[in-house]
Amino acid sequence: MIFDFMVVFCISFALVYYLTPIVIKLAVSINFMDNPAARKLHLKSTPLLGGLSVFIGFGIVVLWTSFIYRDTMAVFNTYSYLLGALVILITGLVDDKFGMSPIVKLFFQALVCLIFIHTNNIYTLLGNVWITLPILLLWMTGLMNAYNFLDNMDGILSGMACILALGFYAISFTVKTPNILGLSESVSLLSLSFAGATLGFLRYNFNPAKIFLGDAGSMFFGYFLSTMGILAGKLTVNTMNSKMFYLLPTLLLSYAIFDISLVSITRKRDGRRISQGGKDHSTHRIDTAVNSHKLTALFVYLINTIIVLMTIIMLKIGSAILLCITTAIFIIVFLYFGRKLNKIPIVVTENQLKK
């Protein structure tokens, strides 16, 4: 099965690697471009259909695996999952081209959350439905917006997503037991399909980027990572027989939670619009400190690699108490890191100012 997993990874990588140049030409031909603006870093118009490229490569491989590995994927509703991904992708494409109010965007984000929750019948995952449903909706919509926020510099999100997807593969492989074999192998196949697709895209998205993900891509990435977090939590809790292990995916995806928290708190404190894009993210502050987009991306990759490794170590140790302590330590480290980053000067763009 490990050989099959590697084949899935390589095929998704190759599909997106060779498809993306075609998508770049398509974006240019239909003028689907991201133009320079005060709140953005790029200085020339750049194609904005990267999310479509990754989705097509990922979707083809997922459909292929669901056909080849019918028994393995039988526990996972592939078609409804891809439907949710398609809805959020189209929402992002419309936003990229014409713009969309935050309320309308949130409506479609909530819709795909409900599709995922319903088709996987996880209304009582955390206990009572009135507890589970709000938490899962907050988790998924929050992360879709967090990764949308983080897509603010060449290669940051695509590289991060690849690392995190490999982390989810490692979790699903580590907790594999006979009673959850189908779900763990489904998560493995999905994670490696996504990791290969994002790595293939990174070739064109790393600085200097030839194409951007756009809101379509970043929200699709948030959809994938948030749903894998739910499934990985379900797997680890089942294996470890402790609900404290729902902390594991929270730890794995903690950098995005840190970034959106930093941005939201500092904007609220300074009286700026929280929902508007700007140059005040953790990545912008790191970039100011190191004066290099490439070094910033590599630094963020390193942070997320460390987080993934710590997550896997906690899973291998299997102690709920140690997991809680480690999570608390990460919170303290992020608070300290946030205070340091808060001292770095930022550019406040006009669209963030309240009138």
Secondary structural class: mainly alpha
Strand order of the largest sheet: 1-2
Distance between the termini: 58 Å
The topology string of helices and strands comes to HEEHHHHHHHHHHHHH
What's the assembly state of these chains? single chain
Give the amount of beta strand, in percent: under 5%
Shape: globular
Largest sheet features: 2 strands, antiparallel
- Could you give the count of β-strands? 2
Mean pLDDT metric: 92
Low-pLDDT runs of 5+ residues are none
Work out the radius of gyration. Answer: 19 Å
Task: Give the number of helices.
Answer: 14
Helix % is over 70%
Structural overview:
This protein has 355 residues and is mainly α. It is 74% helix and 1% strand. The chain is built from 14 helices and two strands; from the N terminus they run αββααααααααααααα. Helix 8 runs antiparallel to helix 9. The N and C termini lie far apart (58 Å). The model has no long low-confidence stretch (mean pLDDT 92).
